[in-house]
Fold each of these.
Amino acid sequence: MSQTKDAAPPSHDTAGAGTDTVPAYSWYALSVLVLVYVLNFIDRQILSILANDIKADLGVEDDYLGFLYGTAFAVFYALFGIPLGKLADSWKRVRLMSLGLALWSTMTALSGFAKNATTLTVARIGVGVGEATASPSAYSLISDWFPARLRATALAIYSSGLYIGGGISLLIGGLIVENWNAAYPQGGPLGLVGWQAAFLAVGIPGIALALWVLTLREPVRGAMDGLPTPEDPAPFRGFVRELFQVIPPFTVFGAAGRGAGALALNLLGAAFFAALAWALWRWTGVFEQWLFLGVGYYAVFSWAMGLRARDLPTFRLTWGSPAFMCVVLGYGTVAFVAYAVSYWGAPYAERALGVNKTDLGWFLGAPAAVAGFLGVILGGRMADFLLERRPEGRIWVILFGLVAPIPAIWVAYTTDDVVPFYIGAFVAQLLSASALGAAAASSQALVLPRMRGLATATFFLSTTLIGLGLGPFMAGYVSATNGDDLSVGVLSTLVAAPFGLVLLIAALKLVPGAASSVVERAREAGEPV
């Protein structure tokens, strides 16, 4: 890779490469973060095993279930992830994560008292806001606890919590629902039924874990890369500024403050996304989905334009970088398929194959946890291994995670036999999980240390507003309009694969040069490094 003579360090992937050992405390702290992420995805993914019960009790359809799991969560997770990502770049990341964990755990528990779809949606929004603190804080902390040569591995270990939590959620949820309903067939204390008790059972422990997180030591930002960054004397100022730039209708005032041209562009963007949301609503007949996404996409547009005016170096290294955008959008297509497959697996097996919840916990959920853990760890190690040999090595792993699972998904959702379904689901989880550590590390390698929180938030905009916000809903909508045929619904999401293929092939060409010129490009944009 080419390097500038005066850039130190010339590349964030080579910074810290000479570090021979990692302190034991780094591994301990990482293990705590893994527990946080496990609980994060238990609280998020438990909706899968509860979906059919919620559908029956609240009288909703598959498109709403896809909206509840995906869009209702994803939009607020993504939007609040932006100002919270900024706060992670300027405040104590340990404190931020602890507060967020307490919030989303409380909202998960409150989901257990929902009596209608509206209440459950509001609680789900609260879970999204709380969980938006986790990954920007964690990614930034991990980058300051581990040298670049081990960052993909460390991020992959952290990310394994996604798959462990997602798998365990099916086991925990299945056991709680079936045992609760057996013990209280007419409803238990406070009139709660099994799916409501499950929300309470997984939400309450998070409050205790939040206190444990508070005991972690805050590392020096950027020291691992030889770029120690002083603490921001006014950390919440940037958070409030970003909040006003991304939350409508304050976005209009934020644009007006930048001038008439910025205001006109903002209003044009608002009109465009409103018209698009209206057209999609009239086409599909689903109002909430496109209202939420329309607001979400407009808010992100407003924020990106504001970022360009306020922090040109960060904009240039993220939204203005073709390499960065190809990585995050390419991984977004992986997430589009993976979220749909993961969420709808249990409801599909219940309906189409007649499997009970307890068996799904043991034979779908537990193996999924193992498959995801193995996939993300092996994928992270392979990404680091390939990076040492080829500058675009990590991108090959993302590409593999997009293409390799397709045959297994096809087998799982076309078979009439439960055994091939379990095997296909296991293999699909194993292979798609391999991409996450590589994608996360690639996005971190393309920005400066002070930008990592916002880079993470931008990375998760793709995984949420594209992957989570559209994938599960599309599967549910196609199912609902085809006689509740979840096989057709899930397989329809494979349409995203060709788009991802094009983006990641472009990333193979673009990432090496971009990664080797981070400091140089930041300086050209006005960064005092």
Amino acid sequence: MQIDTITLTSNQLTWRALQPDTDSYHHLFTQPFDDSTDALPDVQPRLFNALMLVQASQVACPLLLLRCSEQYEYLQLISEALESHTEADDQRYGGHYHINGPVISWQAADADDEPGDFVSNGGIHYADWIEDDQLFGSVRIFQNQISLKAGLLHKANGGTLVLSLRTLLAQPVMWLRLKAMLTQQTFSWISPDSNRPLPVSIPSMPLQLRLVLCGEREALADFQEMEYELSTQAIYSEFEENLQIADEEELIAWRNWVQQVAVRNALPPLAVDAWPTLIKACTRYTGDQETLPLCPCWLAQQLREAALLQGEITAASLSEAYATREWRESFLADRMRDEILLDQVLIETEGEAIGQINALSVVEFPGHPRAFGEPSRISCVVHAGDGEFTDVERKAELGGNIHAKGMMIMQAYLIAELELDQQLPFSASLVFEQSYSEVDGDSASLAELCALISALALQPINQQLAVTGSVDQFGNVQPVGGLNEKIEGFFQICQQRTLSGKQGVIIPASNVRHLSLSDDVVNAVREGQFSIWAVNRAEEALPLLTGVVWQHEKAPSLLQSIQERITQINQLDARQRPWPLRWLNWFNRAD
């Protein structure tokens, strides 16, 4: 099979494109870190603006809805940010309850009172889960003696309270009571049991409170549906999980943020050589070479594991931590890879075959922490028929809606390219071989299109290559997810079977920025043992797979082969017509 060398080299990626560029930023990592500077305003400017706004005394609605994780670390981080940017307040809020037998009176606090049960100096308070007694306090009677216990609301009086939204959604009665106090700015003692009133009358007390509710987007949607008017009046912001790196200033801000995470978790500072290794892991996590994560929990986990191994955070300790975690979580991936190597799952990595192609898939199992790549064999058979394209996965109810959509788009592109005036005189059947669970997504539509064209043109496909990408109705190749796992899954099979130097994968050109591959793949590409091609259109992938271009005016092409085959079957069909209809053949000859 003769493959156009120009086509191969024009789309082939160099090893430098397979990982983020860290060399050009090396000088930034040698700069000293100032741990007295808060990095939050630089990496979360929208969030910081919202936090400062809700702290303003003239704010109309003292409620901030914040989209972020409801983990304890996030609530603590938000509270610390509020506290570090809030001026000290000498004013006293709340007051004193005087209990004289069954009579309880109230006295407002003055400036000389020390903060106590119901006397507060404001401040920032937070809780990831809270019950009624903890939030509102309680009334207790022991041996006919009445006592009042303060709750978190009393301690936060005059300040800001940061709560998990799921806490309130799970306890709607508690939210209704808190909402009334927030809007009226008054704390009223109410019996938690509607069937048992309070034993005594307790005066209400003034309440000045700002509330920050942190929740995921689904929880915020439920809250908006439940409290539409309040949601429209509230301040809204988001904790942005990623930072787009466009210049050196943003990378410096991210570096300071990571160092701040290390300080908050009592971890050693990062060595200069640790930053490139960490950035490679970060871009792998975000799936984008130009995007770095801000999640404090994830960053702390990476740094903590490296520090536990060697007592310091260096390139060596980070690499060892990543390798150890991957080994620890790879049992399932290794077993499935063994199925291929033992020929229980048939995947060809050499030779040629008509209507057969290696697609790249990502496998995600519930309860398993790591997605991993696995090649899948797609096959297509074509026979004379009425133009029906059978999606076996859909017929067997194993194909999802997105997969079915990708199949129909792929077929629409092919029919448009053939420019037929009549129905295609072939029927085709496409299937994921040895697939016994649901298949969804459109990332295999490019591979399915190539397999279909191969079967129609009777042109074999190089089995040393694998393909991923979706196509639109105009033949443009669109980006897909899980690219790094897909490439590494096929590479590992080829590596186990010995790299020939002719194996490789074809990916969408728009996915190049998402590459953050393992050092094994990068080294193999650098040494010419493995190749990665990036294509913008389906026509660019076909010469790589079949050695024949899709369309050419002078040279043989796949499109010409398909049209000739269509002509042959139409002529055969014409000769087999009943004798009263054979006069139609005259028109076929005239054409």
Amino acid sequence: MVWGEETGERVRQRIALLFWLGVGLFCVLSSRLWYLSVLRADWFRERSERNRVRVVFLQALRGNIYDRNGLCLAKDVPRFRLVLLAGSGKKEDVLRRVKDILGKNVTFSLRERGAGEIVLLEDVSLEDVIRIEENRGTLPGVLIETYPVRSYEFGEILAPVVGYVGRISPDELKAFGKMGYRAEDRIGKSGVEAFYESILRGKEGYRRIEVDALGNVVQVLDFRPPSFTHSLQLTIDGELQRACYEALGGKNGVIIVGDPKSGEILAFVSKPSFDPNPFSKGITAQEWLRLVRGASNPLLVRPTQALYPPGSLFKILVALAAQEEKVVASREVFFCPGYFEYGGRRYFCWRKEGHGRVSFEEAIAQSCNVVFYTLGLRLGPERIARYAKMFGFGEHPNLDLPGVRTGLFPTPEWKQDALKEIWYPGDTMNLSIGQGYLLVTPFEMYLLFCAVANRGKIYDPHVLSRVVDTEGRIVREIKPYLRRIVPLHPQTWDAVIRGMEKVVTQGTGWHCRGLPVRLAAKTGTAQNPQGREHSWFGGFFPSENPRFVFLVLVEHGGDGSGEAAQVARRIIEWLLRERGV
């Protein structure tokens, strides 16, 4: 009996334990059910919606870029791609069906993107799009997607100023991701495209579609097309740009043409150049290496990024300083025997037989080295450097393009710091004729000619004229901005400009004689350790009331009175014929 009571008690305890275990399990399950059905209801609803609804983001459009006369320089054109939605069947089966439908061998890109989607084909032709649409029922989960590709009407002719776009890089995505950029987006890489990225980039679109369990598109629930809000009109004259590019012929070099009274850049040529159109679709690593490793370096924007000795063009600044500092008498006559003796050495003029007796203005016209050796020594390196600073050498020019560099202006302090050497009088003489350690960008020399044309007024240069909306209304307009005034005496400007006019009528710029307009100019020959000298020619016209400033550099073109002057004449004749003065 005792044993039976103990057995019954043990049974009751087990039943009680099972009961409470059941109660506990019920509570846990009830709590989990409440958690899933109440607290996590929205999350599961969203997951369910994701399985049923897909959002396809459409790349933002970019605004157009026009020249000053309304010619379209850059625009977006539509292209088509084939996309396979995730979970829509075996990829191999889809690829086989696409080949059968198109009836030809195709190279699939098979590029994965967000949410496991696969881009099957890029740049699908309209004919192939029609074939795919006609066989939509046999391609579940396959979408035809429209995307924009940038088209550059002038190709390599305007690439250095307009620039190009490309797919955003991982580093750029980190920097711009918070601004709404995605891995598929394009971004300006150079030129105006990069500098005005925030204005040109529009709004992305999207397409919300409902799909069934097999990935078939049931219906489009919502659609917002991509768009842009602003376009740019540049100061660039597209036809003038083409004429300048062609004027260089087979030579490499730089041509800049602008309006000195407004700062507007009318032509901005860098040659050799590159075709920006392939960048819009994406180029291979091998193609990129060919561009960056090529000896001609077509991606280098020569007007603002390449450095050259200015040669005799720099004599204009020395002449201005000499006149203003009164280190040359008004009627002083110099004698050039073909060389200048100093410190037991001879420093030669470019004309071996010499120029004989020359005045100050004739020295500018004939580009006499001996006279400028003399003026440079009278001025000294400190005063030359001071005038160079007044005219903006070594200072960023505020041009609205990326990657703008400044040159190297040597001083005694620079030489001591950089080379651990003292400054010699020979350094001053080399500086006075634009040689030695002096390096400039062509754009710095262009701005010097603008300053002379304006008699000391220096305006900020710019390539943007106005921002317009989709209706063509002006949103923003760039006005001339006077950056500084170089306060030289009127007689200083008069003497130097007269000398520049004589460059054409009596001196080294003889290739430009006979033009139906008064021209003030200067030739230059820059020594080049890599080969033949570089040829410079710069100036402005009409000299009494300048409308155009120009600068020409022909790499390995020899002396400035040759190829650069001939190129300049072709440009001036085009301007006189097509634009009038």
